[in-house]
Amino acid sequence: MRLAQEYGLSRTSVRQAIALLRSEGLVIVEPPRGTFVRALEPTETVTLLKGDTASARMPTPTERRELEIGEGVPVIVIFRADGSRELHAADRIRVGR
User: Fold this and answer.
1) How far is CA 77 from the centre of its chain?
2) Upper half-sphere CA count for residue 81 (Cβ side, 13 Å)
3) For residue 50, what are the CA distances in angstroms to 47, 54, 57, 60, 79?
């Protein structure tokens, strides 16, 4: 492992660091190519209207696949006053009023 050799670290330390970065959604691992810093996604603004609420949580595996979001990226759930619900990847939206 090149990072371990280059910086005089143990392979275990490098693996743990990469696992932490991956769990926080900061890097992606593409076997056998390697580990890469995740690109920033373009953002859009979602407007909350009177009576709307929003909450954040970690996505289910199905939601992660449907939204094509990386490991460690939370979702924002918008509960509209009319009873509808919207699900957004948290790294792709800003919530505003």
Assistant:
1) 14
2) 6
3) 10, 12, 22, 28, 11
**Domain boundary assignment for the chain:** 2-37, 44-96
Q: Give the whole-angstrom CA distance, residue 16 versus residue 36.
A: 15
Q: What is the pLDDT, as a whole number, of residue 75? A: 96
Q: Name, in order, each residue with C-beta under 8 angstroms of 44's C-beta and a sequence gap of 6 or more.
A: 92, 93, 94
Tell me the pTM.
0.65
The tens digit of pLDDT for each residue in 31-82 reads 899 888 887 777 899 999 999 999 999 999 999 999 988 778 899 999 999 9
